[in-house]
Design a protein that fits this description.
By secondary structure, the protein is an all-alpha fold. 80% of the residues lie in helices and 2% in strands.
Length: 192
């Protein structure tokens, strides 16, 4: 599903995620917290596909359900499943919610979810190396703040993203996703 979606093959990706969810539901440990967490990933990706197809309302409906499930899993698991912090997965769905709200031009809600994503990624960074995701969430937050006219907050978010990405990009200059994200961050800062 991920590969198909990254190549904009939305219908095929949706079918792959649906098949994965169906297979997971039939597993003997389908009710385990770990498996429930994996199922939220397939559901969230369905929402991301709907957003990519220009259906932000439908995407929003799915992502709200995913967020509620992930928050419940976080509560039940004590914050970790398979040694991974759930704040990372919660951050992912917060980004998806921010993007859906932005597509619906509900910028205050989009900013709120982008800020929540940053908080969740910051919590995940304390236990695992999720700096790139945190920087991407800060970039999104800055973009949304700028769209809403909150210039100071936008600059703060972009500066935070830059301070995370510069050391990462310096460690591995050949890592194209890191370099691309850093270029995007720098372009926002230079245009202001």
């Amino acid at each position: 599903g991920d590969i198909l979606f990254s190549h904009s093959k939305c219908a095929e990706a949706r079918a792959a995620y649906s098949e994965a969810a169906s297979l997971m539901r039939r597993l003997p440990d389908a009710q385990s917290l770990s498996m429930q967490s994996y199922m939220t990933v397939t559901d969230s990706m369905q929402g991301d596909i709907l957003l990519a197809e220009g259906k932000p309302k439908e995407a929003l409906d799915i992502q709200k359900i995913v967020l509620a499930r992930r928050l419940e899993l976080n509560r039940l698991s004590g914050g970790f499943i398979d040694s991974q912090p759930l704040t990372y997965n919660i951050g992912n769905v917060q980004v998806s919610l921010a993007q859906a709200y932005a597509a619906l031009n509900q910028l205050d809600l989009a900013i709120e979810h982008a800020r929540d994503a940053v908080k969740n990624y910051e919590a995940a960074v304390r236990t695992n190396p999720y700096q790139r995701e945190l920087a991407a969430a800060l970039l999104l937050q800055g973009d949304l703040e700028a769209r809403q006219g909150y210039r100071v907050q936008a600059l703060q978010a972009w500066q935070g993203a830059k301070s995370l990405m510069e050391p990462l990009a310096a460690k591995d200059p050949a890592a194209l996703p890191r370099q691309k994200l850093l270029r995007e961050i720098r372009s926002r800062l230079s245009s202001r």
